[in-house]
Structure formats: structure tokens, C-alpha cells
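Support reply, case 0932

Customer input (verbatim):
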Amino acid sequence: MLSDDPADIVFGELYRLRERDALLGEFDMYEACGAGFPEPTEYIRVMLPLTLDDGSAGEAWTYVYNWPVTGLPRIASGKFLEQ
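Our regenerated output:
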């Protein structure tokens, strides 16, 4: 679920895909989202703005959690693996 607070940060990894459409289709299957999966899917794929470590801006396809988050712990650091 996307935050409404512009100060919230999520850290992640960015990859350039050689065969973008084919690989995104495979990733959609892995995340069980997109055409053919019952709504609401656990994740949705959306294009989001990003800032790289060097400060440059861009955008990338991102899988966003799509189910209710009420009662789940907030990851204040923005780093899932360090929670």
C-alpha cells in the first residue's frame, strides 16, 4: 500500500531488464497479479518515481502490497530486511 506521506522512504534494488515485457510477465505470475488473477491481488505492479543513491531521478515498475495493512507493523526504516 502506498503511503500518503511524502517523507516516507522505501529502499529497494533496481534492475535493467533485457527482455522487459517477457520478464515482467514472469514476475507478474510469481507475484500472482495482473490479468487472470482474482481481485484484489496481494500485489499490484505500478510505475513509480524513484531517486537513486547518486540523487538522480527516474521511474521503475514496482510491486506494491495491495491488501489491508491495518494492524501490521510499520517498517519505519524503509528497509524490510532490517525490521
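We compared this against your earlier run and they match. Two observations from our side: The two ends are 17 Å apart (CA to CA). The mean pLDDT is 94. Please reopen the case if you see a mismatch on your end.
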